[in-house]
Amino acid sequence: MQKQARVVIIGGGVVGASILYHLSKLGCSDAIMLERSELTSGSTWHAAGGMHTINGDPNVAKLQQYTIELYKEIEELSGQDIGLHMTGGIMLAATHERFDWLKSVYAKGKYLGMDDLEIITPQRAHELMPLIDPEQFVGAMYDPIEGHVDPYGVTHAYAKAARKNGASYETHVMVEALSQSADGSWHVKTNKGTIIAENVVNAAGLWAREVGRMVGLELPVLAMEHMYLLTEDMPEVAEINASTGAEVLHAVDFDGEIYLRQERAGMLMGTYEKACKPWSETTTPWEFGHQLLEPDIDRIAPSLEVGFTHFPAFEKAGIKQIINGPFTFAPDGNPLVGPVKGMTNYWAACAVMAGFSQGGGVGLSLANWIVNGDPGFDVWAMDVSRFGDYASMQFTNARVRENYARRFSIRYPNEELQAARPLLTTPIYDKQKAAGAQFGAAYGLEIPLWYAPKNTSDVFSWRRSTDFDHVGAEARAVRESVGLSDISGFAKYRVSGSGAADWLDHILACRLPAVGRMVLAPMLKDDGKIIGDFSLSRLDDDSFLIIGSGIAESYHMRWFLAHLPDTGDVEINSLGLDLVGLTLAGPKSRDVLQSCVSVDISHDSMRFMAIKQIDIGMIPAIVGRVSYTGDLGYEIWVAPAYLNSLFDQLMTAGAAHDIRLFGSRALNALRLEKNYGSWGREYRPIYGPVETGLDAFVAYDKPAGFIGKSAALAERDSGGTMRLCSFVIEAKDADVIGDEPIAHNGTVVGWVTSGGYAHGAGKSMAQGYVPKNIADDDSGWSVELLGQILPAKRQKIPLFDANASRMRS
Fold first, then answer.
1. d(CA 277, CA 223)
2. CATH level 3 topology of 89-148+223-326
């Protein structure tokens, strides 16, 4: 076995083998995959091998599409039969709510290039897949790019193709310990010697936690028991094969919580049952490998009963075998991929429960990341950094159970999941709750979404619901008088030291502010794409405060730490809930705040984008003259011990102006009518400054330069390819939420990034990306929503305060 390698991959399942192949394809043949037993041991070998392109996140869907398209390539290159069965598949809806969801999936497919998707009737579904009872369903969607593969064949095809490209793999090599030298190299200790590696990839599947613990890392991963049954030969299957000359189509019955496909002359039926069960909750035994778990048919009986009703032929089919094996999940069901924050060249590639749909895409993006420094795609939905330190073993256990049990359940756009909550709260949580706050959770923190009157709560729906009028009242209160909202969920970073200014000047694309001032601060990658958008405040010559997206705290901190100089003259700290805050916004906000302070905060004394340390009564606070509502407003930051008192003072002072609490849904409505974008929606690492409109805040002429400057200049000169645009939609009882297709003169040309109802302006709005050459066209636009084509109009200037006079007043 070799003694050195550029990359050591730990784990010989389908994910590890895919990474090895993609590294070798990029010319990184100095890579080795280590498997403690045989390839496919753990979860891969007993997987059902299903594959499909559909995913809730369109960027993951693109990678799944890539995975499926890759199979012929690796089969031909390796000479290994992968057992490819491209049967096509049907997704079935037994309720109108589920059919609405299928319509939204179908619409997404239009801008993803999935042109062969079809919305079909139950009768047509029965023609394509005669095992179903069409009377049980209201509609369906047909996808020709669906099928299954042989797990053994695919894994060995990846491995053999990688070996042909010069990479290597070893079986029966147990990794026993990992340590890192001062020079950053990894010492991978195995039962057959030690390998010195530049990079280590944790693709250990069921043992991902154990390999994480070797470096002091607790990954949010849990294995769940998963069962599927194999039937005896079924005459109905033989009849379909004979009459069509093809295999039975795949089918997913969401309301029955089951999926099925043909297996030899019978059928395979799998379930995601409500009565789910974790496996080996705290540690995974090293000796486990090609074993199966004891089946428990009682646990899946409710799903089987629905299956027998929806697919009558199963009721009289004999059961040949029940397979029960463990698969790993992250708390939200998506993989954990990418570099781990604070560790040099330690990479995660685990919790990939849909390995035969996602394995190729995971391998491609991680190999790109290792070799080229960037995944080459928007992989936020899979990024390991989307979870913070709050994601403990207990949190993971609760969330994974919930996610598994709900895998085939509808997640409505206004629905918040409840497991592992409340976890993190601010000091005013009880007061917010008493005021009727309906909470969501973001990065573990309870966030008020809206405030409900007594005995009122969310009714989950694809359409406008019980919150609509109340959110509208909150938004209008801000526009007409004054509102107060909790902004503690924003990420906060303190940067200090004699080298802080020079470092920030290099890592951010903006011009640094003077002391006592704020600026909007885009942060770019080497390729000139947006990796962050912040507000940057200069509190002193060598002291700065950065405010950014709360959900991206770990993501951005990883970038900051990776680019921190080793000179010791710059320090950055993520403040988390050690700094909390409120925003006071609306035309009366200055009057309310002025009544609480002894210093002059008039327009001339505290202009727009000023920041000061001010005592609010007896409370020391950092106050910025800015508001994401796009109105006159202030962001007020204090230590958590003061938040209760601050809240009380502002509410008391605001009573004379009918101050109203508002939540994040009202904030979304307010920022939409200002044409403001947000991180994770409009601003993502696949768009450049010109495309996003953030070029106005890029200092292209900074003498010292900044990360991504040359690429940003090239984009400025070319104009990029897309433009972020705002639209007014002729909606009736539902509003876009994101990922709907945008059409121009009937042709799909772009996609919605976010939307909603702008209550202040009384308009349904959307933001999204369209090609730059047609972005200025006023007419011809439409958006597809819940199966309806809705006319849209370009909204080039904000519906509220277009000249920013009120915001700057």
1. 9
2. D-Amino Acid Oxidase; Chain A, domain 2 (3.30.9)
Token duo for residue 632:
């006159």
How would DSSP label each residue in 185-234?
-EEEEEBTEEEEEEEEEE--GGGHHHHHHTTT-----EEEEEEEEEEPP-
| pLDDT at site 704 | 84
Q: How far is CA 647 from CA 198, 199, 616, in A?
A: 51, 49, 11
* Encoded tokens for 24: 């070798």
- Counting as low any pLDDT under 50, the low residues of the chain are none
Contacting residues for 773 by C-beta, under 8 A, at least 6 apart: none
* CB-based burial, 148-170: b 16+ in 10 Å, e otherwise: bbbbbbbbbbbbbbbbebebbbb
CA distance 383 to 400: 17
Find all residues with CB under 8 Å of 244, minimum gap 6, and list them. Answer: none
Nearest to 498 by CA among 567, 601, 559: 567
> Which CATH number applies to 4-82+150-222+332-382: 1.10.101.10, 3.20.20.70, 3.50.50.60, 3.20.20.370?
3.50.50.60
Q: Dihedral of CA 573/626/621/607: which sign?
A: positive
Q: Which pLDDT belongs to residue 56? A: 86
- Which residues neighbour 579 within 8 Å (Cβ) at sequence distance 6 or greater? 492, 637, 638, 639, 640
Neighbours of 128 (CB within 10 A): 18
The domain segmentation of the chain, as residue ranges, is 4-82+150-222+332-382, 89-148+223-326, 491-576, 580-657
Task: Answer whether CATH 3.40.50.12780 is correct for domain 580-657.
Answer: no
CB neighbours (10 Å) of residue 606? 22
Q: What is the pTM (predicted TM-score) of this model?
A: 0.97
**Inter-residue contact 387 to 550 (CB < 8 Å):** no
Question: Residue 362 — φ and ψ, nearest 5°?
Answer: -65, -45
Alpha-carbon distance 413 to 734, whole Å?
A: 11
Mean pLDDT over each residue of the chain, to the nearest integer: 98
Count CA atoms closer than 13 A to 494's CA, side-chain side: 13
Q: In this structure, which topology does domain 491-576 adopt according to CATH?
A: Alpha-Beta Plaits (3.30.70)
> What CA dihedral angle connects 456, 461, 464 and 469, to 10 degrees?
10
Predicted pLDDT of residue 736: 98
CB 625 within 8 A of CB 607: yes
Packing angle, helices 664-672 and 468-480, rounded to 10: 60
Please count the residues of the chain. 809
